[in-house]
Design goal:
By secondary structure, this protein is of the alpha+beta class. It has two domains: 114 residues, 434 Repressor (Amino-terminal Domain), CATH 1.10.260; 118 residues, Ribbon (Umud Fragment, subunit A). The chain contains six helices and nine strands; from the N terminus they run H-H-H-H-H-H-E-E-E-E-E-E-E-E-E. The protein has a nine-stranded mixed sheet with strand order 2-1-3-4-9-5-6-7-8, with no helix packed on it. A hairpin with a 2-residue loop joins strand 6 and strand 7. Helix 2 packs across helix 3. The longest helix has 12 residues. The chain is elongated and about 75 Å long. The chain starts with a helix and ends with a strand.
């Protein structure tokens, strides 16, 4: 499939419309729409814009994101529902002449269609300064079960967690959690530093902060002496 075909399929199926309904509404043939959705035909951006507008997609301008940035960080094929066998196609109808569309309008089309399935997540360093961002898929309005605006990536500053397979430069997706979880790798604030540590519950409000480059090390602290920022749920390694 092409990314644009995936996008049209995603919008159509989200609105529970058949190919025949969309084809008639947009003045195109059902076979033409089928070929676009399955990546066998290249569709122009202005034609895609017209179809998306017919589906009720409104344009939104968010110039801070480029089409290349979105395309490089999402695979719509993993988000679109499975296709069903289409009904026989009607006789092709003539297509209207396309109108020129600006690059800003094209960006608005993509962003509006993807806004419900993608979220820009900030990448924070150990000094809690944003150094970049990554587009992350949203499922049922959440990212890994958390509110999208509270999820962050933490850029591993060193190899202190190499024993847990997290090395310097890796990106760790962190969801908010303030209570210690036994065996979980969590982002903690301790001694004026933010770092990743594996948690071991000891009882009497004490926890063990485990780390290690090639060998495991641990430090026992009282829960009141550390601030738990969140729990690591995914690691993206640096190549």
């Amino acid at each position: 499939m092409s990314r644009l075909g995936d996008l049209l399929l995603l919008e159509r199926t989200r609105q529970k419309m058949t190919r025949k309904q969309v084809a008639r509404m947009c003045g195109i043939s059902e076979n033409y729409l089928k070929d676009v959705e399955e990546g066998r035909r290249i569709i122009q951006d202005d034609q895609a814009r017209r179809i998306l507008n017919k589906l009720g997609t409104s344009q939104r301008n968010e110039a801070e994101f480029s089409l290349d940035e979105i395309a490089a960080t999402v695979d719509l094929g993993t988000l679109a529902p499975q296709k069903t066998t289409p009904a026989p196609a009607p006789k092709p109808e003539p297509k209207p002449e396309p109108k020129p569309v600006s690059s800003e309008e094209q960006s608005g089309i993509w962003l509006d269609a993807l806004s419900s399935v993608l979220k820009p997540v900030p990448v924070m360093n150990a000094g809690w300064i944003q150094v970049s961002r990554r587009m992350v898929p949203i499922q049922d309005g959440k990212i890994e079960g958390a509110k999208p605006d509270r999820v962050v990536y933490f850029l591993a500053p060193d190899d202190s967690m190499r024993a847990m397979r997290i090395e310097k430069g890796d990106l760790v997706l962190v969801v908010p959690q303030t209570l210690p979880q036994d065996g979980a790798i969590m982002l903690v604030e301790y001694g004026a530093h933010r770092c990743l540590r594996r948690i071991k519950l000891l009882g009497n409000s004490n926890i063990l902060l485990q780390s290690g480059d090639r060998e495991l090390g641990a430090e026992s602290v009282h829960i009141s002496d550390v601030k738990l920022v969140g729990r690591a749920v995914r690691v993206e390694i640096a190549l």
